[in-house]
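Exercise 7. Given the encoded structure of a 399-residue chain, write a plausible sequence.
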């Protein structure tokens, strides 16, 4: 040590010093650092920097793309340089810069959020192609979730339920059956390869376009959270081809469009339209439907409709059918009738012996709303809805 003065000694020790954690980082910078640390952990585990190439694991290829982008953005290089004890930022800057294109810091932050790739949605490994831009403008900035320990057991349990088939992941697609009100506290979704948990729903307010909205606290399985609008989360799920709704464990698949080999047939939901010449019925023919469940053949069930007051003593036409598997038909029928009870037809019919009968399975409901209700039976959300005759819509009314 005779040749080292105090300044030289300080320089020598600086090479071994643990970089001090920067203070006052923005949430955006925290996410970039977190993404870089994921790459560093990969290097520690595998002994080399992540590489490109189809012959490598999807995680490695993903990290390789991220590292290239970090190298190509000067702001990121400056931020991460004190943490780069593995020399990961010393790659080809010109090549990395070419990959950045018009990727700004917001897009990079979105890219650095954990994602994975596999065809199994229950393993949460869906990765979108590079051409599929993330909808960063639809999602509020994500922050580190300081109390993530509270939520981590929920994510573990949800993944376990998915693996066991207790929960299922249903595609989140745009149609009349998916409204902003679908997104409620306690629900799980899959967005950007992460499980998203709606931890809190704020007060409802009216947006400038006249629609209602609410601010959400959404916690993600990678330990981040965001404070975004319900409308923004819905739109992000629409735009994410791998976006999914995770069903409740108690719901299960009440029926399916196609059966598995080990499914037991249970019957059919049928929707009928009356051909009665009764003026009142004829005036509402396109709106008036009978909704029932049968374990037999639907055509045989309605063969003698004109003799049965249950069918309004008239021939009927089959408007729609839905095959059922492994469900309790009586319970399902009760659920459907409860949902549409506000629109139940109140009419008295004379049977062929002149005795008064009040049919109970006819409802003044558009066919597309019935189809929406069937969709909600599929995803397990039907118990939170009831039909509103004034708006001709299913309204969200949780118990």
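Solution.
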């Amino acid at each position: 040590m005779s040749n080292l003065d105090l300044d030289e000694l300080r320089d020598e020790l600086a090479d071994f010093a643990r970089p001090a954690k920067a203070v006052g980082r923005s949430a955006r910078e925290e996410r970039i650092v977190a993404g870089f640390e994921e790459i560093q952990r990969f290097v520690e585990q595998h002994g080399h920097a992540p590489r490109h190439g189809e012959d490598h694991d999807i995680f490695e290829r993903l990290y390789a793309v991220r590292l290239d982008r970090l190298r190509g953005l000067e702001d990121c290089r400056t931020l991460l340089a004190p943490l780069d004890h593995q020399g990961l930022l010393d790659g080809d800057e010109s090549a990395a810069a070419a990959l950045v294109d018009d990727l700004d810091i917001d897009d990079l932050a979105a890219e650095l959020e954990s994602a994975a790739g596999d065809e199994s949605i229950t393993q949460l490994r869906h990765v979108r192609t590079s051409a599929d831009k993330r909808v960063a403008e639809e999602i509020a900035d994500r922050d580190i979730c300081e109390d993530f320990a509270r939520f981590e057991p929920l994510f573990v349990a949800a993944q376990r339920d998915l693996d066991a088939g207790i929960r299922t992941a249903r595609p989140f697609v745009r149609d009349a059956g998916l409204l902003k009100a679908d997104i409620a506290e306690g629900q799980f979704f899959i967005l950007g390869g992460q499980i998203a948990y709606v931890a809190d729903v704020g007060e409802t307010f009216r947006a400038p376009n006249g629609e209602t909205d609410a601010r959400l606290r959404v916690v993600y399985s990678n330990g981040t959270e965001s404070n975004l609008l319900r409308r923004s989360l819905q739109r992000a799920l629409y735009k994410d081809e791998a976006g999914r709704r995770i069903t409740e464990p108690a719901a299960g698949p009440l029926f399916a469009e196609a059966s598995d080999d080990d499914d037991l047939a249970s019957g059919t939901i049928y929707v009928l339209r009356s051909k009665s010449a009764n003026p009142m019925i004829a005036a509402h023919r396109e709106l008036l439907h009978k909704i029932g469940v049968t374990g037999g053949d639907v055509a045989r069930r309605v063969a003698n409709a004109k003799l049965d007051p249950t069918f309004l003593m008239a021939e009927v036409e089959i408007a729609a059918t839905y095959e059922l598997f492994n469900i309790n038909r009586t319970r399902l029928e009760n659920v459907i009738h409860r949902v549409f009870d506000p629109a139940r037809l109140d009419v008295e019919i004379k049977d062929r012996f002149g005795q008064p009968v009040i049919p109970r399975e006819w409802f003044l409901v558009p066919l597309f709303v019935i189809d929406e209700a069937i969709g909600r039976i599929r995803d397990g959300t039907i118990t939170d809805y009831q039909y509103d005759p004034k708006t001709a819509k299913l309204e969200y009314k949780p118990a």
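Remark. The longest helix spans residues 27-46. Students should compare their own answers with the one above.
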